[in-house]
Amino acid sequence: METEKNGTIQKTKKNMTVLGRETEFDGMIAFTDNLVITGTFSGGPIQATGDLEIAKTGVCNVDAIEANAIVISGNVTGDMKAAERVEMCAGSKVSGNVTTAHIRIADNVEFEGQVAMLDSVPDVDLFSVASAEYKKAMVLKSDDPR
User: Fold this and answer.
1) Cβ burial, residue 64 (10 Å; 0-12/13-18/19+)
2) What is the 3-state secondary structure (H, E, C) of 78-125?
3) Which of 97, 104, 96, 144 is nearest to 120 (CA)?
4) Three-state SS for 132?
5) Do residues 92 and 75 make contact, with C-beta atoms less than 8 angstroms apart?
6) What is the mean pLDDT of the chain?
7) 111 contacts 94 by C-beta, under 8 angstroms
8) Is the full-model pTM beyond 0.90?
9) Looking at residue 137, what DSSP letter applies?
10) What are phi and psi of 5, to 5 degrees?
11) From residue 81, how far is each of 3, 9, 111, 128 by CA, in Å?
C-alpha cells in the first residue's frame, strides 16, 4: 500500500495471516489486512477490507466473500464481491457470482457463475457504513444508461 506524505510516496506494509494447509476452519472471518487460505474454510461470510488469496491447496465453501482484492488458485464455492479486482489463476475452480471493478480469468479455469462489473471502486469503507449504503455505492455497469 502506498501513501503520500510531504510530497513523497511512502510504502505501508500490511500484515499477512496464513491459514495453513492442515487448518480446517468453519465459521465467519472478518479482517483488515491480508489473508491467505491454504487449508479449508467453510461457512461464511468472509468480510475484509484487505486482500484475500485462496492458494492452490485452499478450499473455500462460503455464503459470500467481500474483500478489496481476491486471488484464487484453489477451489471456491460462493459469491464474491471485490472492490478492486478478482483474479482466477490457472487450475482454479470457482462456482459463484462475481462483482468487481476488474477481473482476470486465466486459461484452464473452471468457472460457473455470472460477472457484474463495477463502474469504479466505491469510496466507501465496508465496515463503517450500513450495508444498504454500501450497496447503493456499488453502481453496476448494467444499470448505467450510457
Assistant:
1) middle
2) EEEEEEEEEEECCCCEEECCEEECCEEECCCCEEECCEEEECCCCCCC
3) 144
4) helix
5) yes
6) 82
7) yes
8) no
9) H
10) -140, 120
11) 25, 29, 15, 17
Query: Per-residue pLDDT averaged across 53-60, rounded?
Result: 96
Do residues 68 and 83 lie in contact, with contact meaning Cβ atoms separated by under 8 Å?
yes
Nearest to 94 by CA among 64, 74, 117: 74
d(CA 92, CA 53): 12
Distances (CA, A) of 82 to 20, 44, 67, 75: 23, 16, 5, 17
Helix (H, G, I), strand (E, B) or coil at 44: strand
Cα–Cα distance, 96 to 104 (Å, whole number): 15
Query: H-helix or E-strand containing 136?
Result: helix 131-137
> Alpha-carbon distance 2 to 100, whole Å?
21
Q: So what's the pLDDT on residue 7?
A: 56
For residues 106 and 109, what is the distance between their CA atoms, to the nearest angstrom? Answer: 6
Which triple of cell numbers denotes residue 90? 490457472
